[in-house]
Amino acid sequence: MDSQGQTTSLQRLHNVEKVLELAGGVMDELSSPTGPRKEVVQNHCLEFMQLIKDIQGALRDEIKSACEYRPFENCDYGSRIGSEICFKKLEFVMSQLDRMKQTMDEYHAAV
Amino acid sequence: MEENIQLSIDKLPIKRLDAIEENGLERFPPDLDHDEKRLSLIRRIDFAWAVEKDEQKKKQKKTSKEASTPWQWQSMVENLQLAHQELSVIIDLINTVEANDAVTVAGMTRPKPLPNEALSDIAVSAATKLQCYRHVGKYFKQSAKAFEQQVAREARFYGALIRLQQNWKVKRQRLASIAPGNEGFTFDLFDNSYDPEAINRSSALSTVRVEHDAAGMLAINVPPNSCHSLQFGFLGAQPDDILRKSNINNSNLSSKSYLGESGEESLSDDECVKKSHLLLREVHLAIFNEQVFDLVNREAFNSSTGVSVTGIRENYLQLSLGQGTFVFLSLVPSGQDNQKVEGAVTDNVGNAILPSDTLEGVKLQDAKHSIHKKKKWQFPNSLSYEIYLQQIFHEHIFGRGIGKPISSGTRASGVPAKDGSGLLGHFSMSLSHRIFSSKVLAELENVVCKVPYLQLITNPTWHSRTSSWTLSMKVPQSILRMGSHTKTNIAFEKNAVKSQFWTKVVVNDDCINVEREGAPKVVGLFKGKSEEIHSMNRYDCNLADLPVIILQQVASQIINWLYQEALMVGIKANRDFLCLSFELEQGETLCLVAHVDPDDIDGCISWWLVMEDSFVEERKLHIDITDGASEYRKFLGHLSLDLLYATLMDLIGLCSAGGGQ
Fold first, then answer.
1. CA dihedral (B296, B302, B303, B305) positive or negative
2. pTM score > 0.80 for this model?
3. What are the strands, taking DSSP E only, across A1-111?
4. CB-CB: which of B155, B270, B398 is closest to A81?
5. How far apart are CA B284 and CA B281, in angstroms?
6. Which helix (H) or strand (E) holds B36?
7. From the UniProt record, which GO molecular function terms apply (chain B) (predicted)?
8. What's the CA angle centered on B144, arms B138 and B147, to 5 degrees?
9. Spatial contact of B341 and B231, defined as CB atoms under 8 Å apart
10. Which of B33, B122, B137, B412 is the 20 to 30 A CA-CA neighbour of B516?
11. Distance (Å, rounded) from C-alpha A10 to C-alpha B157?
């Protein structure tokens, strides 16, 4: 589920910093005494919109994955308990097998 | 005031024309504002007298002082004071206007701006706008870093929440008084697919709050020792320390061990999520354990289950299952199992089934025979019954919501009622059976240990109240048959060559049934079906007699086998239950007699060779008759089957040799 290279998928939102920097850049450009340079402003705005689109995409993916989990009607808590019981059974059986092995080893050692 | 009051009379408040133009347009004086009216009214009042009074006072004060050089800032101070007065008047006016919202301005005309004023206005507004832009730009750049950090924090939190949400139900409550950092998320661990009649107790543990830890990451705090685990045990049994301790150490997830590691910044997000997940699992299991305990409590007081309550404390229930078996079920805080168990053992009445005949004769033996001493019977492992109890409750009550089918016929014997009323009875019957069958197994093992040619095989029955074992004995092949490879009657041979004898022990609840192959039927031999060859003998017996009966069955099988061998060779022999006899020439009888003794240390089946003359044919052999006058007895010892076969051949040789003479 997680995108590669990110520990939590929401960390694809690290571009928000860039977004704000771009916005700041645009503001600076507009406030420059010689008047704003059109292409600079345009580039910044384009990049801004692109980043916003990426961020929105990331958020949408996350929300979709959050909503994909089982709705409350299909609760799996019962089978979860079943799994816990199976787990305990496995532990028990393994301990029995270990004891058997120990007995066998003792027997072989004694012989 | 002693002075005269003066009156002044206003002009009538009618509008008077100011001017009239040629085209008839009338000009009226502009309406005064409300404030102007007030001002004019205020002006009308003559405060001269008060001002003069003040001035006189001031003059008196001044003349009393020495004439000082005028302070150079004096005029500025006066100007400021005047400005201050005007400003205070304006402020009062504004307050009055504000308070009195019925005031409307009748009309005002803006003074026409002068050209340079317009330009300077534009310049000022442009400059202000640019300044704002710069300000905003600076704000954006400054807050970029902080914003990114905030987003990263939130991303960690929500990322963890989303991952946990894939397994657990998350609910949100929008609190009015939200503390910063508390968004009102909770994990809901209550399973609403449970049968509503069966569950009474909704645990306080069901709702777990989601909180933030110091780094803003998702954290769950569960009060320590609030999670209980179920513990089942037998009274009077030694606690299975080894088994339990290893399980506890592996699964000890109490939050104590994690809270002690505060300041561990190096815990990655994955580990945080896993830690929270483990905690939630533990709480979820604890809720289930509490519900099982509750149900067992309710069922135990229902007298129809055959189980009676003999002791009850908080989180502890002691039951009697009948036949002197006492068990306990308790809820212990996770991680503290052993102390409770020992307390229970010492406090309560011990079980009466501890066997007393265990260690007799041990001291008389040396180490070589130590493996043959009777094993002390122990209670079966209580952990397995704890798991079984949890499982049957889980399947029959909690598993219903998913539409799981009722357990198949092989397992349940009238068990599943929807509200679980028969479960405890079923459990106690299974448990009683298991205890009984473990005793049966102990007896069988004792026997089989000592007889080298017997093998014990357990047959799985897949039924919780039936157990079955097979004792099988392999006999050596006859020398005569080893050389023959005739292919014509292979089927005949297969059925006739019996190399394995078996005895089956079946335990149903607490009834033991022993079954063995009997004498072969001649008719069946030719039909070729193995079921019809041998008759089945079935006996019921009780636990105390079981070893003797088993040994007798085995010995009689050996006798049968020897009999068959003798017949194959062509010697006519007589077979009794435990005795094979051959006739010698002079009417003497040579008998091979089996003697069984389950307590014999060297082996349970021993053999005697008895020779008797014809006068005592009718008299059956008894071991305790030591009168050796008319019979001759030799103890052969515990023979292996090969030796026994060889002995038989020798005896046969003796008979035929004697017959030949």
1. negative
2. no
3. none
4. B398
5. 5
6. helix B34-44
7. transcription coregulator activity
8. 135
9. yes
10. B412
11. 9
Chain A partners of B138 at a C-beta cutoff of 8 Å? 24
Query: CA nearest B599: which of B383, B394, B449?
Result: B449
N-term to C-term CA, chain B: 180
Backbone angles phi, psi at B182, to 5 degrees: -115, 105
Please state the three-class secondary structure of B512-557 as a single string: EEEEEEEEECHHHHHHCCHHHHEEEEEEEECCCCHHHHHHHHHHHH
Q: What tens-digit pLDDT sequence spans chain A (111 residues)?
A: 333 334 446 666 777 888 888 888 888 888 777 777 888 888 888 988 988 888 888 888 877 766 665 566 667 788 888 899 999 999 999 999 999 999 999 999 998
The complex's ipTM works out to 0.78
Which 173-192 residues of chain B touch chain A by CB within 8 A? 189, 191-192
Tokens of B19: 């001017």
Phi first, then psi: give them for residue B569, nearest 5 degrees: -80, -20
pLDDT digits (tens, 9 = 90+) for B1-53: 567 887 777 777 677 777 777 777 777 777 777 777 777 777 766 666 676 77
| DSSP element (H, E) containing B589 | strand B589-596
* Joined tokens for residue B189: 């661990």
Do residue A14 and residue B144 have CB atoms under 8 angstroms apart?
Answer: no
Residue of B130, B147, B151 best to disrupt the A interface, most CBs of A under 10 A = B151
Contacts A–B by Cβ distance under 8 A: 141
- CA B368 to each of CA B39, B281, B364: distance values in angstroms, whole numbers, following the listed order: 130, 52, 11
In whole angstroms, give the CA distance from residue B561 to residue B520.
10
